[in-house]
Amino acid sequence: MAHELPSLPFPSNALEPHIDKATMEVHHGAHHKAYVDNLNKAIAGNPALESKSLDALIGDLPSVPENIRGAVRNNGGGHWNHSFFWKSLSPKGGGAPSGKLADAIHSAFGGFDAFKEKFEAAGLARFGSGWAWLVSHGGKLEICSTANQDNLLMGRTIAGCEGKPVFGVDVWEHAYYLKYQNKRGAYLKAIWNVIDWNAVARNF
Ligand code: MN3
Fold it and tell me: What are the extents of the domains in the chain?
């Protein structure tokens, strides 16, 4: 079955003023859609790959034929990363995590503010395009980042970082350029207002 573009879980203007409607429309309707379309194109005519779930597909890149491996890595990763990203954002987001997630953040980073600072630094330090991630290793939290559309399911050898994704933030220019231009740091600060900590806690 072909991979499909999931609907946004909120209207495209719902995250304003932090993420503007025009950015959401082009990000979801053009960029994410292109990853889905190009993934389907790459695996078309290969029933073994077409029958795999997205997780199974990008979690076993070495088994993908070499001539389409790059396309599956970029577009499969892009589809996974964006699908995950939308679900962790909400117009009712913001504030601070609670419960076990808050405890884990305190124990790993010394506090919520220290965590936010370290996460923003990871997003800023990613040269070019990629993602900043909060990952869990059996409940122990870590921050890391991946290049381009690399995904944690690809493993450390390929993605440079591994663990269970708790949440990720897209730091490609297409995620913020219309509103924030070159100010990636301002976008990363604004994102905290729309992070859905209940969704993030469920991932954790
Ligand atoms: Mn993106």
Answer: 21-87, 99-203
Q: Kindly give the pairing relationship between strand 164-170 and strand 140-147.
A: unpaired
User: In the CATH scheme, what architecture does the domain 21-87 have?
Assistant: Orthogonal Bundle (1.10)
Q: Are the C-beta atoms of 88 and 200 separated by less than 8 Å?
A: yes
| Architecture of the CATH domain 99-203 | 3-Layer(bab) Sandwich (3.55)
pLDDT tens-digit profile, the chain (204 residues): 699 999 999 999 999 999 999 999 999 999 999 999 999 999 999 999 999 999 999 999 999 999 999 999 999 999 999 999 999 999 999 999 999 999 999 999 999 999 999 999 999 999 999 999 999 999 999 999 999 999 999 999 999 999 999 999 999 999 999 999 999 999 999 999 999 999 999 999
Residues with beta carbon < 5 A to ion ligand 1?
Answer: 170, 172, 175
The SS3 assignment for 144 reads strand
- Kindly give the distance from the C-alpha atom of residue 11 to the centroid of ligand 1, in angstroms, as a whole number: 17
Q: Which of 191, 165, 161, 187 is nearest to 174 (CA)?
A: 187
Ligand 1: centre distance to CA 39 (Å) = 15
Question: Do residues 19 and 52 lie in contact, with contact meaning Cβ atoms separated by under 8 Å?
Answer: no
Distance from residue 146's CA to the centre of ligand 1 (Å): 13
Tokens, residue 21? 């409607």
- 23 CA distance to ligand 1 middle (Å): 10
